[in-house]
Structure formats: structure tokens, C-alpha cells
Design a protein that fits this description.
- It is built from 4 helices and no strands.
- Helix 1 runs antiparallel to helix 2.
- 70% of the residues lie in helices and 0% in strands.
- The N and C termini lie far apart (52 Å).
- It has 100 residues and is an all-alpha fold.
């Protein structure tokens, strides 16, 4: 099997990540999200070319680190880590405008 395993893992990570944590990126511009995933895919491709299936570590380790940081950041700011509640407080911390 070639790089298909890495692409599948990226797809699964993106699918689960946007489903669970999409609420945290409501005001993020679409181009920024696209750029992030293009950079991640490009990095995984380059690592795969250099190190083979060790590129899976380049997917899994940052994802675990990101989820850990996310939960710590949310708990520190008294925001529910899966629901982004209270929403007004979350928007203020992200620098977004709250519209009633």
C-alpha cells in the first residue's frame, strides 16, 4: 500500500475534527481552513516521500497535541471543550464579534 493509508487518516481526522470541533471555527475564514489542510497534506506527502509510513506519526502526534491543548485552553478559560459554552465568552476570547 502506498500513501493511501496516510490520505485516509487525514480524511478521517478532518471528518471527525470538523464534526466535533467545527463549532470552534464558526467565524474562521474559509480560505484559512483550506490553507491549513493544504499545508498539512503537503507536509504529510513530503514526510511520506522521505520516511514512508512514519508519516502517520506526523498526523497522529500533532492531532493528539492539538486536542490536549484545546482541552487545557478551554478548561483554563471556563469554556466547555466540546460545546464552546458559554458562547459569548468563547467569541470574546477568539476576538470575534458577538451579534445578538
Amino acid at each position: 500500500m502506498g500513501i493511501e493509508l496516510e490520505w485516509f487518516c487525514l480524511f478521517a481526522l478532518h471528518l471527525v475534527g470538523t464534526s466535533l470541533f467545527g463549532v470552534f471555527e464558526v467565524e474562521t475564514p474559509w480560505w484559512r481552513l483550506m490553507l491549513k489542510w493544504l499545508l498539512i497534506a503537503g507536509l504529510v506527502y513530503l514526510i511520506y516521500q522521505w520516511a514512508g509510513h512514519w508519516a502517520l506519526a506526523a498526523i497522529i502526534i500533532p492531532a493528539l497535541a492539538g486536542v490536549t491543548f484545546h482541552f487545557i485552553w478551554c478548561r483554563k478559560h471556563a469554556i466547555h471543550p466540546l460545546r464552546a459554552l458559554p458562547r459569548r465568552k468563547y467569541y470574546r476570547l477568539r476576538g470575534w464579534d458577538w451579534v445578538e
